[in-house]
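Chapter review: from sequence to fold.
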Amino acid sequence: MKRVVAVVIGLAAATAVLVGCSDDKPAAAPGTQVSNGGSTEVKVDGNDLAGLDTNSVTCVKQGGKITVGSGAVGGQQGLGIVMTDEATPKVETLGLVVDGNALAVNNMMGAKVGSAEVKVDGDTYTVSGEASGADMKNPMAGMISKPFSVTVTCS
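The token string follows.
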């Protein structure tokens, strides 16, 4: 059972990180809002997520969703968030790669892992909560959870 849970969480984190995380930024489709860089801040356990290039963070608003992702993911620190684009946004998936650990928040299709809430101040979104996951080097070691906070400007 632990193996299944670890695999599900790992996949959720990987999916969230990869959604919208690409170094190749295509031209925006009509009705799509894309913003790069800006004032992005990512903290895990109260500390800045070292190794994450906040200038690579992109925010895309399209089709009723807001997708936030970092550019360089391969083995490095990474970030991916998919949330609803409404007056009170809800996080559907969130993935963080922190020191080799895949941490996730998932609130889709009946699967609930971790927790997250979103606060909006103009074009600035602050997503905070607790992400859960497994050590990617030793997924059988058991679950870990870490508090996080992501502040990003999506114009």
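Two observations follow directly from the output. The longest helix spans residues 2-18. Residues 1-30 have pLDDT under 50 and may be disordered.
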